[in-house]
């Protein structure tokens, strides 16, 4: 196995173009698990930790651009106020040690249906900045995940950054696991209220081959909420929203949980997240 | 022998002497040790739960870079020895041959099939992939009830059955009570329940590791380093099963990072390393990965319990019938068949009732063998009786604590001969319970529970009770003999006073994290009047500690600690003679207090143990006939068990929508008798409770239909982290054991035994108004949700 350690971003892109099979590695919290268990023997690892361009984040009026090497811990500590949903999801990742090394971009690169960052990225309409020697493009999160642990990056592309819109409204994330931390979620759900647009965004994790939005549920609830009056959520709306979310999922039975339970729990999580977010909106 | 009277060290919360090196890891873990010329071994394991081995071709592996040797079971069939089971519980028990390396058949996933020995570990691991094994898969046997059915595929074809044994205890036959059949007709209440103890994995922190240095030529000797709980038993069995002379084998258990019973084992890996070292004539090291530990080291529990409880309408228990099916796995480990027997005498718990019958059938399956895991038999018993006492309370319509009060042994009734034939020497269940209820705020919580039920709160509150007892101090050798166990239950200690007055203690009880060095120092400091820091404790090396039966079953203090007191007293009595000689008086006129011998009535002249040690060293002026040593050795064989007890209570919130549970409060009041070091006791209780909660809520070894272990890493075998555990409020009552001179009982397993039923009782208590009477462990959110869904639908 070759270990490639580019010092600059152009060099990294050149290496990836030369050796498309090289697996990018930053925190190593996913890749090294696979390597250690001998589930994967990449012909080369492309170490991105030396590249200064990836270590920062920056803000414009509409979004925050998070460099590929920004860790969960930094998201929690530096971006918690502006990206509360992403910070909530980051807090549930692994352990403090994992959060100190793991990155949002790494979560995207692994593209596991259970990745904790995905649901809120979907709910907020985030996009992935992919770059290669051929140029740069922005991939909307909803188009990024294409299958179990598969994403839509071209073989020569690397993730440069994640663009997360600054959403003017409450955000929530919750998950159910077989223990509190250090466990793959049984199912997870994120929700964001885009107040100016009168729109609810959603993201479902661990309950389908890819993370996915619950579009029908979004359409329904966005129209059913009393945005202007800020009245309590009308009776039955939360439950219906939960049902629609659960219908969108296509979970499987595995050692962590059954499909039936995942569907049920998603409905409960969706209803509760909506209630919490709406309460925050009412008080704002 | 008299109890230790005035003391200063026993009872002090001393920080552990061993922690600095253990916690930093800068110590002699087996894998940290390198011996000259050492090679590394890797093991190829069966991917099949059951298969015939047609052929094994190691030639490509043997030719791989850095590889020194590669071989399979057939290559060492004559010399590798066998793994022994020390507890043939019945005369007609089925005992299959247990080979370290499989030769013709594999019977569980992970069974060793071939090995590579190489100059470095990575080369050995890589070369495993070059070994070709031709298997013919055979039918798997996974379900223990199906395994007993007519026509089931067999784990051991030559045995003609999957049944290992059936062992029965009947109080009428034993003379300790009546006949259960006799109480059936008069029973006003009959409660039948099935409880399932899921399979657990011991999860010691340090994976197992072994180094074997073979004899260098004729007349040479072997040194075996192993991360084991039982160096002495390992040495004995290695000698007995490989024909190697015992006096030529030195076994060293260096610092050992936990065991929980998982290292109360002689393992295929140790025997294979022994065979490998002999084959290549050089030292060989093997250290397992975590996943290898999970598929290969023995598992625990995995028992189906069918109980029938008979009682009167007022809640008085009249009889108990227990039928167990215990999963042995594919082979018998050192005490596999006996684990249920350690629980057999405890299903009556702290209660008195007239009739009891117990029957256990051991069953072979194509899974990793089971064996001792923290509590070994007693958690199962305590779980069953404490769960079903709650069912009785519900049936009678009284508070579950009240039903316990109506049945338990009152403190003035000790010593008490139980229906299971044991004599409980001491206890005070009332005191521990009262204290625990106060600490929890039992009555307030019951009021809150009622309010939540009234308001249909989606989060319901449950209160869980576990009033447990267990037996420690394993074990009186005569009792073990009567139960057909292959060894005794004594323990040994020796004390050596050095010329400068410092003391070396050798213990036969080999620790793996319990803090023996600290506790033993405290005991000796009091016995000999020397400073705590002046005592060194040596252990775990058969060359320095030639005699011992090691550490398991909460025995170290209650058996080994007593041997240490006896050895210390021998030294003190000899020192008294020497001190009297120096003080020019009769030994009878010398008293020992505050670390010195003084002539009664003239306290100004004194001699310490150190003075005596120096006098012995010089030997210029000793009394006639006194040997110039200040050393002693003692071996203690207990006459009875000790019986720790206590009351554990917890309050749990159950989310009836998601099934999630959250332990809001956990209170335990344990009575472990006299406490040598409260800090160590507290640590044992916390760790034990954590492991008990883990069985209730988190841990389960799961096999798929082909017999693959699905939970073979900590990502899927979910040990709780600190984030999953509640604050534990721990307190004690202290009713000294009368079965030993220190008054100690043992605390290594109490928390694990007590906690599991407390937690599950709380969950069921929360959901009882819905009609839930059981949730299968581990009570994951999904299981809780399903239990609710079944009764509501």
UniProtKB/TrEMBL annotation, chain A:
It comes from the Bacteria. Keywords: FAD, Flavoprotein, Oxidoreductase. GO terms for molecular function: FAD binding; oxidoreductase activity. Coiled coil: none annotated. Residues 1-169 form the FAD-binding PCMH-type domain. This is Carbon-monoxide dehydrogenase medium subunit.
UniProtKB/TrEMBL annotation, chain B:
Keywords: Molybdenum, Oxidoreductase. InterPro entries: Ald_Oxase/Xan_DH_a/b (IPR000674), Ald_Oxase/Xan_DH_a/b_sf (IPR036856), Ald_Oxase/xanthine_DH-like (IPR016208), AldOxase/xan_DH_MoCoBD1 (IPR008274), AldOxase/xan_DH_MoCoBD2 (IPR046867), AldOxase/xan_DH_Mopterin-bd_sf (IPR037165). Residues 24-139 form the Aldehyde oxidase/xanthine dehydrogenase a/b hammerhead domain. Pfam families: Ald_Xan_dh_C, MoCoBD_1, MoCoBD_2. GO terms for molecular function: iron ion binding; oxidoreductase activity. It comes from the Bacteria. The keyword Secreted does not apply. PANTHER family: ALDEHYDE OXIDASE 1-RELATED (PTHR11908:SF132), XANTHINE DEHYDROGENASE (PTHR11908). This is Carbon-monoxide dehydrogenase large subunit.
């Amino acid at each position: 196995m070759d270990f490639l350690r580019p010092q600059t971003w152009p060099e990294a892109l050149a290496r990836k173009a030369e050796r498309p099979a090289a697996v990018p590695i930053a925190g190593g919290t996913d890749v090294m698990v696979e390597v250690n268990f001998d589930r994967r023997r990449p012909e080369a690892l492309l170490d991105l930790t030396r590249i200064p361009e990836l270590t920062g984040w920056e803000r414009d009026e509409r979004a925050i651009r998070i460099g590929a090497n920004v860790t969960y811990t930094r998201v929690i500590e530096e971006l918690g106020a502006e990206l509360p949903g992403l910070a909530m999801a980051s807090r549930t990742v692994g352990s403090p040690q994992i959060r100190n090394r793991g990155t949002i971009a790494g979560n995207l690169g692994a593209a596991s249906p259970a990745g904790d960052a995905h649901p809120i990225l979907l709910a907020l309409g985030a996009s992935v900045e992919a770059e290669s020697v051929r140029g740069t493009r922005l991939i909307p999160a909803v188009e990024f995940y294409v299958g179990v642990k598969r994403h839509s990056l071209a073989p020569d592309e690397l993730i440069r950054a994640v663009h997360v819109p600054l959403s003017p409204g409450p955000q929530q994330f919750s998950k159910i696991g077989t223990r509190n931390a250090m466990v793959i979620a049984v199912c997870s759900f994120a929700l964001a209220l885009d107040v100016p647009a009168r729109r609810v965004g959603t993201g479902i994790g661990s309950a389908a081959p890819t993370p996915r939005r619950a579009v029908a549920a979004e359409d329904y609830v966005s129209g059913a909420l009393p945005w202007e009056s800020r009245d309590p959520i009308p009776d039955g709306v939360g439950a219906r929203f939960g049902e629609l979310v659960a219908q969108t999922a296509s979970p499987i039975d595995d050692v962590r949980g059954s499909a039936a339970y995942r569907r049920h729990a998603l409905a409960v999580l969706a209803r509760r997240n909506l209630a919490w977010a709406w309460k925050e909106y009412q008080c704002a | 022998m008299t109890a230790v009277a005035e003391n200063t060290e026993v009872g002090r919360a001393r920080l552990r002497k061993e922690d600095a090196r253990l916690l930093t890891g800068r110590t002699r873990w087996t894998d940290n040790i390198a011996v000259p010329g050492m090679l590394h071994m890797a093991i190829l394991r069966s991917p099949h739960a059951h298969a015939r081995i047609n052929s094994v071709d190691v030639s490509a592996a043997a030719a791989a870079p850095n590889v020194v040797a590669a071989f399979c079971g057939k290559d060492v069939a004559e010399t590798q020895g066998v793994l022994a089971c020390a507890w043939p519980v019945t005369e007609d028990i089925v005992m299959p041959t247990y080979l370290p390396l499989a030769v013709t058949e594999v019977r569980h996933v992970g069974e060793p099939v071939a090995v590579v020995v190489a100059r470095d570990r990575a080369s050995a691991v890589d070369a495993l992939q070059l070994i070709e094994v031709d298997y013919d898969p055979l039918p798997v046997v996974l379900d223990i009830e199906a395994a007993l059915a007519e026509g089931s595929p067999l784990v051991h074809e030559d045995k003609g059955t999957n049944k290992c044994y059936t062992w029965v205890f009947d109080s009428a036959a034993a003379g300790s009570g009546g006949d259960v059949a006799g109480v059936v007709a008069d029973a006003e209440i009959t409660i039948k329940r099935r409880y399932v103890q899921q399979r657990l994995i011991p999860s010691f922190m340090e994976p197992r590791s072994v180094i074997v240095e073979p004899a260098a030529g004729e007349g040479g000797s072997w040194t075996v380093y192993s991360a084991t709980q039982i160096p002495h038993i390992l040495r004995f069995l290695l000698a007995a099963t490989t024909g190697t002379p015992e006096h030529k084998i030195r076994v060293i258990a260096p610092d050992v990072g936990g065991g929980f019973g998982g290292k109360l084992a002689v393992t295929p890996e140790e025997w294979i390393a022994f065979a490998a070292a002999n084959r290549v004539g050089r030292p060989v090291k093997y250290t397992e990965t975590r996943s290898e530990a999970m598929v290969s080291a023995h598992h625990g529990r995995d028992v189906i319990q069918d109980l029938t409880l008979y009682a009167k309408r007022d809640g008085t228990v009249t009889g108990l019938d227990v039928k167990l099916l215990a999963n042995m796995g594919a082979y018998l480990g050192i005490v596999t068949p006996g684990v249920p027997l350690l629980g057999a005498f405890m299903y009556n718990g702290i209660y008195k009732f007239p009739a009891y019958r117990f029957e256990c059938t051991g069953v072979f399956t194509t899974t990793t063998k089971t064996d001792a895991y923290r509590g070994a038999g007693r958690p199962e018993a305590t779980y069953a009786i404490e769960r079903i006492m709650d069912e009785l309370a519900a049936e009678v319509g009284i508070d579950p604590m009240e039903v316990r009060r109506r049945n338990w042994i009152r403190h003035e009734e000790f010593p008490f001969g139980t229906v299971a034939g044991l004599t409980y020497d001491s206890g005070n269940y009332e005191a521990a319970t009262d204290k625990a209820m106060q600490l929890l705020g039992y009555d307030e919580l019951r009021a809150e529970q009622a309010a939540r039920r009234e308001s249909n709160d989606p989060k319901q509150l449950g209160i869980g009770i576990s009033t447990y007892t267990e037996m420690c101090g394993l074990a009186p050798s005569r009792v073990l003999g009567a139960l057909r166990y292959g060894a005794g239950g004594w323990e040994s200690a020796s004390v050596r006073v050095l010329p400068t007055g410092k003391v070396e203690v050798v213990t036969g009880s080999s620790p793996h994290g319990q803090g023996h060095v600290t506790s033993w120092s405290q005991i000796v400091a009091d016995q000999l009047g020397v400073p705590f820091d002046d005592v060194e404790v040596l252990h775990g090396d058969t060359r320095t500690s030639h005699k011992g039966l090691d550490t398991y079953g909460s025995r170290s203090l209650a058996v080994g600690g007593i041997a240490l007191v006896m050895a210390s007293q021998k030294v003190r009595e000899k020192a008294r003679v020497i001190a009297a000689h120096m003080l020019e008086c009769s030994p009878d006129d010398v008293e020992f207090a505050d670390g010195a011998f003084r002539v009664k009535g003239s306290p100004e002249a004194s001699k310490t143990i150190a003075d005596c040690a120096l006098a012995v060293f010089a030997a210029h002026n000793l009394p006639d006939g006194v040997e110039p040593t200040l050393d002693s050795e003692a071996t203690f064989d207990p006459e009875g068990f000790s019986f720790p007890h206590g009351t554990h209570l917890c309050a749990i919130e159950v989310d009836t929508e998601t099934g999630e549970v959250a332990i809001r409060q956990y209170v335990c009041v344990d009575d472990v008798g006299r406490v040598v070091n409260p800090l160590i006791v507290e640590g044992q209780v916390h760790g034990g409770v954590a492991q008990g909660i883990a069985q209730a809520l988190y841990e389960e070894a799961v096999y798929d239909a082909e017999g693959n272990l699905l939970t073979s890493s900590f990502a899927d075998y979910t040990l709780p982290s600190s984030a999953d555990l509640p604050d534990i409020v721990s307190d004690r009552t202290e009713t000294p054991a009368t079965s030993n001179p220190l008054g100690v009982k043992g605390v290594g397993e109490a928390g694990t035994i007590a906690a599991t039923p407390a937690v599950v009782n709380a969950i069921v208590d929360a959901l009882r108004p819905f009609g839930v009477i059981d949730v299968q462990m581990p009570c994951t959110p999904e299981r809780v949700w399903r239990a609710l869904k079944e009764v509501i639908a």
